[in-house]
Amino acid sequence: xxGKRPIVVHLPxxxxxxxxxxDGEILGLAHNVRDLVEFLRRAGxxxxxxxxxxxxxIDWRGVGPDRWExxxxx
Length: 74
Description:
alpha+beta; four-stranded mixed β-sheet; globular
């Protein structure tokens, strides 16, 4: 990876999935770590799935990589 690029993974949307942004550009709606890694690969960033939780390049908004679904209210 050439240089640091801000990666933002937003809170889960009400319908599930998390918006992914790199350098201010929305890459898509990821529904799991595999989706996230694929979006990043297409953007020229190589991060292994097992490294996303601890990567200093990723700003996890609100919750970490273990939550991808919308919070359900009962």
